[in-house]
Write a structure and sequence with these properties.
There is one protein chain. This protein is mostly beta strands. It contains two helices and 16 strands. The strands form three sheets. Strands 1-6-15-8-9-10-11 form a seven-stranded antiparallel sheet, with no helix packed on it. The protein is globular.
């Protein structure tokens, strides 16, 4: 087999996570974690979270976050599995420009139930939840950044995706995008992220300009 063909085969086998793994880095690295070509597993650091001011009066910025930095418009997706135990245990995706501008979304464990949770922060945080009627082993989370907004979706089978939120988010700025987790009230838990991928989307304004200026 030619070297070029072998390299293509290896990249295909490794998948999207491997293609991005060399560019990934930690913000608040946990003590126990492991990443390979297909997944990231970690023991989520106890007493950690992301939140700014609203309602509770405090700011925290210390949850594990494994990310890459991208510009422009994109779609990101990951499969998340967690051994949730304590109130507010959570796993999901985060988009972050800085400590005052970020979105986290995924599964959050509240009152014994799994919820699809979204926190949008612009100086101050807000929080929205959708309670799941069942307790699936895993959930897929997808975010789409277009222009000045982010669309948030979830799925229980990686086929049918349900939109849960459209949130304002600054455009034309590089974004840290990746996998995050937290255990604000608890002593940590095991979390697994699989198939993380980020797909570039052509800039919508540029496509419109090109269409109008053929």
């Amino acid at each position: 087999m030619k070297k070029t063909s072998l390299l293509i085969l290896m990249l295909t086998a490794f998948g999207s996570f491997a293609q991005n793994s060399e560019k990934m880095q930690w913000f608040n690295q946990p003590e126990k974690w492991k990443a390979d070509s297909k997944s990231l597993s970690m023991f989520v650091t106890p007493k950690t979270d992301y939140w700014r001011i609203t309602h509770y009066g405090f700011t925290v910025d210390d949850g594990p976050f494994y990310y890459t930095t991208v510009g422009g418009e994109f779609e990101a997706k990951v499969k998340i599995t967690g051994e949730y135990k304590t109130r507010f245990d959570q796993t999901g995706l985060m988009l972050r420009i800085d400590e005052k501008t970020w979105i986290k979304t995924g599964v959050e464990f509240v009152d014994g139930n799994m919820n699809i949770s979204s926190v949008v922060t612009n100086e101050k945080s807000d929080w929205s939840v959708i309670e799941l009627t069942e307790k699936p082993k895993s959930v897929w989370i997808k975010v789409v950044r277009r222009l000045d907004a982010v669309e948030i979706f979830y799925s229980l089978d990686d086929k049918k995706y349900t939109m849960v939120r459209l949130a304002s988010f600054p455009d034309n700025k590089p974004v840290m995008i990746g996998m995050t987790a937290a255990s604000p009230d608890g002593n940590g838990f095991n979390a697994i992220f699989e198939g993380f991928e980020v797909k570039h989307l052509p800039d919508a304004r540029r496509l419109k300009w090109l269409e109008n200026n053929k």
